């Protein structure tokens, strides 16, 4: 299994490629075990950004989050994997998934599309151990357990992690994404969290249905979301408080948590990732790590 460590840095596509390469280099120096490259809906089957991040780093695992199965060609994706694999095999993890129906024209028979995509990757020799599925619901989690290294669910809570671990069993990798706000001002933290969650995620059926399966009521997911829902989906507070929230996923059965930071306007994610590094990596301060 590809090594991810306990924590990774999830880097949003709002930043340009050069910025994310710089962020990945610093995240590696800080001690994060993986960098997850958010990719959106576009065709990224050439894996050029992944290649640039791999070349700029030395030991951190580089994962895609995610390659969309509707907008990418599995044959081209496998060819890119084989191009990069000789030099970077132990550091390359392909996160793949279906996205959501509201943003994909022709979103039909999603399970059939996922199985067909995986069949092609198998035929092209892309190992199951080097891919991870963005699986939320029971059916896709079962598929992740049988045909990939495991699951990289997005916008979930520890209750989902606990249920996913039970369904996956002890072997497959479980690496949820967790969005956070590192800010000691509670109203500001909740405001940023609500802005992030309400639009688009509370308008997307797969995320809403998943939340309803894991302890939330219709009132929680209506409108811009209840305070409880927002605080659970986007923990906010001091670095210590956020670190404790991240650990709740590990306590629930996650192997790894991919941390996505919501910064203040004009800031990037690194100040918060530095502050968190000083809390989540035992015996290592963010300041010392960033100077290595």
Automatic annotation (TrEMBL):
Pfam families: Bac_luciferase
GO terms for cellular component: cytosol
Domain Luciferase-like intervals: 21-120
GO molecular function terms noted in the UniProt entry: oxidoreductase activity, acting on paired donors, with incorporation or reduction of molecular oxygen
NCBIfam families in the cross-refs: F420_MSMEG_4141
Full protein name: Putative F420-dependent oxidoreductase
Organism per entry: Kutzneria buriramensis
């Amino acid at each position: 299994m590809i090594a991810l460590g306990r924590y990774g840095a999830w880097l949003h596509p709002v930043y340009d490629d050069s910025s994310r390469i710089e962020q990945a280099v610093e995240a590696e120096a800080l001690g994060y075990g993986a960098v997850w490259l958010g990719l959106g809906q576009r065709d990224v089957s050439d894996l050029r950004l992944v290649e640039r991040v791999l070349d700029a780093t030395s030991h951190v695992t580089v994962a895609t989050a995610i390659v969309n199965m509707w907008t990418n060609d599995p044959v081209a994706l496998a060819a890119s994997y084989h191009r990069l694999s000789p030099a970077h095999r132990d550091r390359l993890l392909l996160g793949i998934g279906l996205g959501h129906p509201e943003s994909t024209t022709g979103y039909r028979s999603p399970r059939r599309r996922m199985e067909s995509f995986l069949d092609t990757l198998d035929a092209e020799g892309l190992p199951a151990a080097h891919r991870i599925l963005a699986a939320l619901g029971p059916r896709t989690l079962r598929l992740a357990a049988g045909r990939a290294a495991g699951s990289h669910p997005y916008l979930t809570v520890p209750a989902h992690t606990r249920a996913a671990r039970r369904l996956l069993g002890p072997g497959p990798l479980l690496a949820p994404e967790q969005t956070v706000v590192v800010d000691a001002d509670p109203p500001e933290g909740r405001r940023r969290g609500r802005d992030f969650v309400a639009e688009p995620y509370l308008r997307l059926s797969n995320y809403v249905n998943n939340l309803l399966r894991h302890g939330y009521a219709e009132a929680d997911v209506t409108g811009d979301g209840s305070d409880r829902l927002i605080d659970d989906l986007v923990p906010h507070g001091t670095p210590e408080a956020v670190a404790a929230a991240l650990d709740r996923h590990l306590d629930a059965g996650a192997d790894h948590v991919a941390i996505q930071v919501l910064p203040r306007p004009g800031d990037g994610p690194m100040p918060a990732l530095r502050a968190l590094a000083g809390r989540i990596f035992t015996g290592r301060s963010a300041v010392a790590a960033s100077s290595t």
